[in-house]
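Revision sheet: structure tokens.
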Amino acid sequence: MTDGPLIVQSDKTLLLEIDHPDSAEARRSIAPFAELERSPEHVHTYRITPLGLWNARAAGLDAESVVDTLLKYSRYAVPHGLLVDVAELMDRYGRLSLNKDPVHGLILHCEDLPVLEEILKSKRIQPLVGQRIDDQNIVVHPSERGQLKQQLLKLGWPAEDYAGYVDGDAHPIELVQNGWELRSYQDIAAESFVHGGSGVVVLPCGAGKTIVGASSMARLSTTTLILVTNTVSARQWRSELLKRTTLTDEEIGEYSGAKKEIRPVTIATYQVLTTKRKGVYAHLELFDAKNWGLIIYDEVHLLPAPVFRFTADIQSRRRLGLTATLVREDGREDDVFSLIGPKRFDAPWKDMADQGWIAPADCVEVRVTLPEHERLTYATAEREDKYRLASTTHSKNRVVEALVAKHSDDRVLVIGQYLDQLAELGQHLGAPVVDGSTPLKEREKLFEAFRSGDLKVLVVSKVANFSLDLPEAGVAIQVSGSFGSRQEEAQRLGRILRPKADGRTARFYAVVARDTIDADFAAHRQRFLAEQGYAYRIIDADDVLSGKDPQAK
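Predicted:
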């Protein structure tokens, strides 16, 4: 027993004392297999989950290394039952494997007959497998490869996929490092992915996920399909690839609502893929249009559920998922694991900020009180109307105006969910509003004016939640959000985390109506950022209006 920074508990939670001299080392050691749940000031809570252990196993860690880590840093005796559970759970990974057989094609292999019998009894598994070859092997139809992995994970028997990948058509791609170079973590992330063949890279917003994608493409030099969230994101990927690689304009196609180009590198939107006509997904032929060697899923945490089903059919391709948060509000993280692949690289936000790769951030929750008449309206409203009423209270307008005035020297993004609220704020602030109906040309013109500094304040709807590249934005003011979405909160903070030329701290304000459902949802939204070590200061709207913020840094 040592005086370590870790307390290991039998319910699989780990308590890490932050002020302990070995805490940073311990945190790095447990990060591959334990998930951060809470991170208040002094003691952080991690949890060991089956998915976390299997991610670690996929990354090359074995049970012995995990047990050694727990014993090394634990202050007290580690519960024996937990050590046994860790060993048994990790031992489950890879007991089943998918392999290529020269005679039978794709097969499921298992050296443990009782396990094979157990999974074959499942009604979910039976339709996905074919003839039994012997006691250890059973034929699998190639089109069921993804679906089978998905179902095996749900049964608690994750399969290792050794069946390999088709190389796809070769297409030369090289990085062009003019005036910039690949950061060390980007190089490691791309290398980890290429070595593993498929999986997810988790990097904070502003840390250059696109460059990890470009670097992976250069290493594989193959035809690539890139799936993105919207057309603006598609254009940003295009301009980044033209800037960072040897690819030319003619080699990159856009497949969206407006254009249908299929080229060696094709960028498509999730939206177009999930479009149905007469009950049929009309654009699925895109997956078969070329012999793709690599499929990149940008913002994989937002991957629509129907696209999961399509991906089940393209398991023979290398797949790279990119995200800032592996949190999914629909709880389908295990689908990302089974269909895209395990986590190959993860970088904590605060570590990246400490190293200067992303800007430090000051997060503030400003609480406004509803006026009497609005409180009465809120109290008597139906439950489904309460959130809108609380989120769009007029009391927030004065606070936003005061915050914008306070940061008049900086570039400010005002972000919200409700269009009528944003239109009103735009009028009050004399600032343009960008929402889903703003034409693409107009959007790009306004974003460019903001980047250059000609425009200081921009009001944006949820189009700002992802893939918006505004490096010099230093302040974000959130007035309303999508209920309790943790990933949205992270994405919005991410808009202002690009490192600033003068090294200044980014400011993130969430304006919230107290004693309402708005405050409850805000608390839920903040969870992911709290996990990453960002503590929200709470101040009263009156302090903002009077110009007082005693703790302002």
